[in-house]
Each structure stands twice: as structure tokens, then as C-alpha cells.
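Re: [help] complex structure
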Amino acid sequence: MIVLADVISSTIVFAVPLLLVAMGGMFSERSGIINIALEGIMIIGALMGCLMMRWLDPLVTNGQLGAQLGMLIATLFSGVCGLVFSVLLAFASINLKADQTIGGTALNMLAPALAIVLTWVVQGQGQTTILIPTWSRITEANFGLTLENGSFIQALLFKNFYLTTILTIFLFAIAVILMYKTKFGLRLRSCGEHPQAAASVGINVFKMRYAGVLISGFLGGIGGLAFTLAAGSGFQSSVAGYGFLALAVMIFGNWKPWSILGASLFFALFKVIGAYASSIPFMPQFKELEGTSSYLWPMLPYIITMILLVLTSKKSRAPKAEGIPYDKGMR
Amino acid sequence: MSEYVIEMLNITKEFPGIKANDNITLQLKHGEVHALLGENGAGKSTLMSVLFGLYQPEAGVIKKDGKEVKINNPNDANALHIGMVHQHFKLVEIFTVLDNIILGAEPNKMGFLKKAEARKKVLELSEKYGLQVDPDAKIEDISVGMQQRVEILKMLYRDNEILIFDEPTAVLTPQEIDELMEIMRNFTKEGKSILFITHKLNEIMAVADRCTVLRKGKYMGTVDIKNTTKEELSRMMVGRDVKFEVDKEPQKLGDVVLDVQHVTVPSKLHSNNAVKDVSFQVRAGEIVCLAGIEGNGQTQFVYALTGLDKMSHGKITMLGHDITRAKIRERSKLGMSHIPEDRHKHGLVLDFTLEQNLVLQRYWQPEFQKYGFIKNAEVRKYAERLIRENDIRSGQGPITTVRSMSGGNQQKAIVAREIDKNPELLVAVQPTRGLDVGAIEGVHKQLVAQRDAGKAVLLVSLELEEVMSVPDRILVMYEGEIVGEFDPKKTTVQELGLYMAGAKNMYRDVEKKGGAEA
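Output below.
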């Protein structure tokens, strides 16, 4: 039973960054800009969020600042930093009409390097891990409850409970409404499908594409912090390929918010099954493969990604104009 | 109030190296249909883009109701109640009809869409003008005719009074064209003014009140349609007399060159077949035309015929050889030439030079290569000959990048290359698409010359004038099937239209007799 609670709560906590980042990718790509820089944006968001937590740590431990208020500041800070970082992509691909894949790749190479340098600057040479303070987690104590440590409810609700989880639910609802119920969403989607049509009815394609990329930067930044919290062992200038996994989730989710929600839960579940496989009694353990058996299950989410993308990519339909710089003269 | 609702006075618009509009004046009266006539590249679209705010002119003024106005973007044009149906529809395929109509002018409260209100207005307009649309259908699922109605509704939804139609009839069936003309007349009765861009003289004679003619960016004059003729208009447009009939020698039918049996091609878009059990023959010395509205399987059939794609059933024989599974090069060596539908995709390598493109079908022959090395001097000589013989115009001759050439000259290059191969079977798919009257005349002459020389020609065309004038036999295709065979001398455009729209089928009774009795 405890294993079940663990699996459910871990699934949710790992689905959060995937959902955030894939939603970010969705906003960018539906405005017409391929955002392969999500990995780099996550790293920047995670770095700045963790640094902010580190700076706030004395205040929180002194009791001058509420723990969850500190988390809110750190989370928003990581989002804003992701947004600022994504301006580079927007400028290169919208103003300069650069190849979006190459621009994104450049940012992905820049981000981890920048993260290592900044980590060393702040923490001193060789200190590559930014530790996450314990107050980042929401515990039963925050609600004035006392639960037996190791009980089912405690494991289900409070073992992996962060402010980012709540925030993500809000952001998801806002994203769905924004995308389908507002003027903004209709215009954004038209720019990713047929920017010339959008321009012919007076929509400013440049502005809409900027909006798409900046939203993706904000969500990607928060997603980076959410991943670091989920991974638990502190920030080490990497988000372990989650930005790319989120791109796969977005494609598997067909660039639609509800499908992306489903896809991120699905991928997170496999990630967690991979991690917990050895403690689930009925799972095969591959004992005969000596030395390699411990690597088999963690490969699961990535293998499933590949298989599913091969199977579903034929049906998924990317925004028609994504990746093509907007040219006024083109018909 | 001024006599004119819109005046464009002495407009000049330059692009690097070319004056697209040179001192052009256009005056549109209240409640008239005003045609704007000119060849490709005459500057019609540029002039309309200036009026619609997409380009800013270097010189000249635009007046609305006698007052000078500045139009810097489509929003300004919209505020002056100017609307435009673009030649290539500006519709978002995955959006619904309703979303497309309201896009850019969404009724909203604090940014939230008010779709119920929009739907009501759209349905009212659709009823009032007889423009039937399904507001919840997606654009990608509806017919081209309905897409055009959506474009018209977009203008009406914005309460536009000056309506620009940019080559609106190119994609329509004859019946739909008649409907459109009727709709245009209704608009003028309500006091709306229409600018109608076209190069089809028949339509101008049928619907326009006045006509302004442009040639090579220059203003040629404005005439009353009542006091003019087709011949006079075409002379103004091209600068010389153009013949509308195609001269053909008496037919000398030879042996069967192409024999197509039960060809079926699966569709890439849906589970249905794109081409269903098509059989026919083409003999030496005849031009057979595969006619039909765009998207009825002609493209897929040609892909199967020329080897660009595979078929699932059937057999194709050419000059007695089974070529059902032959490679493209094998078909080419047997004497098949192909003027492709999409000249940019399948006809030319746009960033190669003209001479490289001209030798593309022959570079592997010993004449042009030795041990895999291209003989550049031979290629140059060959290209120069083709350029001279076919009057292919370009900036730098053989070394011009093909991308920089005009569409008409690109097409001339393809036609020259394919015909110089001396083919037994010439497959010409929409060979005059996007060409102007003068260039069309040239291509038609070359097709007929092939026929008169005893070669077989398969022409695939969407243009009714071409369908009626060039071929010896017409096969009409509808939804992947051949639904009728006609002699162009014994049929009418109206009859063909009924078959093209699926209302009639020679080989089968059709349930829906929609337009048949009407």
C-alpha cells in the first residue's frame, strides 16, 4: 500500500514539470516558433530559483519570512528568469529570422555552462550542487495536522508536496481558458497555422509570436524549478533531458492542453515505475542479467517515449507554420 | 459627395530593380463592378496590396469619398470599410468557419470571446445574401466554393463597402462562377462597390461596368465595358493581337501509345481511394484532356502515371511495355515527358542555374558527361540553344538562378526541356497555370505541335477555356473516377460543369440530381 501511495505521489510530482514545460512548448509552437530551447530555459529557471531559495534561506530560518511565501518568490523568480532567457530565442527567430532549431540548440548549450559558472561564483570553486532547503516542501505541519510518519495518507499527500504542484493546476486551467476561450488564444493559434491570414485581418504576427515564446519561457523556467524539487537531490546544472522529454510529451499530446496533461501523467508514471520497479513485488527483476539489471527499468520512460512517438507521430499534426519565419511578402 | 468612392491617383510603387506600379490611376465609382485587367506581373496585386495597406507607395495619393487617406496596414483599410478576398484564401485550415470569420474582429468582453453573438450575426448575413456556410465545419473539410463564401462573409462581417476580389474564379466550377457573378451584382444593388481583379476576359464582359487595364506596371487606360470588345481589351493588356482559337491540323490518329487499365491509387489523406479504377487510352496524334475540379484525383493519377507514387491496383502500358512498376528514369527513356503541376516542387531545382535545370533530363547521357564528369561547355551550348529557340527570358542567361525568374519563363524552361527530349507521350499537368494570355498561347501552340507531329499528349487541366479549345477528347474526373467522355466540339461548358460537380455520371445513375434539372 505504501508503495502505491509512493507511486501515485511521485507520479504527480514528476508530471508537474513535464506538464508545465510541455504547455510552454505548446504556447510557443502554436504561435509558430519551434522551441527546442526548453531544456536550456528549464536549467536557467532551476538555477535562478535555487539561488533565490539559497538567498532567502537565512530569512526563512530566522522566521522573518514565511516558508511558502519564500517558495512563491523563488518560483516566480525562476519563471521570470526563464522568460528573460527566452527573449534571446524570440529575438533570434522573430526579429532576425534565424533558424529556430539552431537558435534553440545554441541556447541549450549556453544554459548549462552559464549555470556551472554562476553556481561556482556564488558557492565557490568546486561546489557544483546547490542544495534545496528543507522548508521548500509543504508538510502536514503547515495544515496543523499530525500524521504518523510512513502512514498511507502521509505518503500519498505530504511526501512530495510542493507549492509548484498547486500553482501548476492553476496555470493549467488558465492555459486552457486562454487558448480556447479568449481573443488572445484564437489569434495566437492563427499565427502558428497561417500567419499571412492572421496579418491580413490586422493581427500583429510579431507580437503574438513574442507572446508565445515569452509564455513558454515563463512556464519553462518554473518547470525547471519544479523538476529540481521533484528530483530532490539539489541542482547540479542539469535537468536530465526533461526539456526534451517535455517536447516529446507535447508532440504526443498533439499540441493540445488536455492531451498534454494526459501525456505528462503517462510519462511520469513510467518514470516512477522505472524507479520503483525493484520494490514492486510482481515486476520482473531481470536478475540473470548481472550488473545491468539496475539500468533496465530506469530506461523505461525513454524507451516508451521513442516507441510512442513512432506509433503516434503519423497522426499528430504540428501547427502548420511552425519553424517558418514570418515573411510578409509570402502568400 | 464625390462621384468616386475610392480614388488611387498616380500611385508609384518600386521594388528593388523593378517599378511594379508606375504612375497608376484607378477610380472606383459608387455601386459599380470595376475590373482590373492585366497579365501576370502587370502590377495588379501590388496595386491592390497598396490599397489594402500591405505596401506603402513611394508616390501618389489615395482618396476615400474625395478625402485623402493614409492606409498603413489592413486595420486602416478595414476602418475605411475596404475588404479583400485574396487569390490564395487567407483561411486557417484547422479553424471552424465561424472562428475564421471573426478572427481579427472578435466580439469579446474583457478578451473573452462572445461566440454566440458572432454566430447570430454570421447566420443573418449568410441568409441575407444567400451565402450558405456551416459555421461549425472546419475549413479543411469544406469545398473550395464554400471557402470562398467564408472569405466573402469575412468582408461582410466587417461591414465592408468596398470589396476587392483577387482572381476569385480560378478555383470555381462554371456553376459556382455564375453564382458568384450573381452575388456580385446583388452587392452593387445595395450600393457596395467592387474591384474585380482577373485576366479572364469573358468574366469581365459578363459582370463589369468599367475596366482599368495595366501592362508591365503602367496604366493603359480605363474603358466602359459597353463600348468595348474582348479583342480590344486583350490588345490593351498584351500590346498585340492575341488569338483565342487554337489552330489544329486535321487529326491523324496513330497507334495506342498509353494504355491505362483499372488504375487505383490510395489516398494519403483518408481511407478512401484517391483514384478509383481509371481506364483509358491515348493514341498517337491526339490530345486527351483529363478535366475536373482541383482535388478530384488528377494529381494522384499523374503521380502514379509518372512514377512519383505507387498505385495499389491496375496496369499501365506504354508503347507495349508494362511500366506499372517502372522507375521514373525508365519511363523517361521510353519517351515519357512530364510537365509537372507544381513547377517548383517537381519541375525545377530553384537554386540551380537555368542551364543546370535545362540539362536535368539529359546530364547522364554521353553527350554531357564522361566518367561522371559533366561537360560544362556542352551543357552551356545546349542551354543557349534552348534559350534561343524558346525565347526564355532571364537576367543573366544560362547562369541565372531559376528562383529569380518569372513564373512564365520558368514554365517555358520546363516545356523546352521536356519537349526537346522528343517524347512519344507528353504529360502536361496544368501547363498554363498562372501564365498570362501571351504565354498561354505559346504553350498551347507547342502542345498542338506535338500532336500534329504524331505524338500523344495527355493534358490535365482545370481551366475550362483550355479544356474546350486544346484537346481532341475530354475525360471528366470526379472524386477519383472518370464520369464522362466528350468531344469538345459537341459539348458545352455547362454540360461539362454538371459532370465536374458530380451531378451527372455517364456510366452510372446519380442519386443526387442537384443541378441536373435546374
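Chain B has two domains: 4-238, 284-311+323-500.
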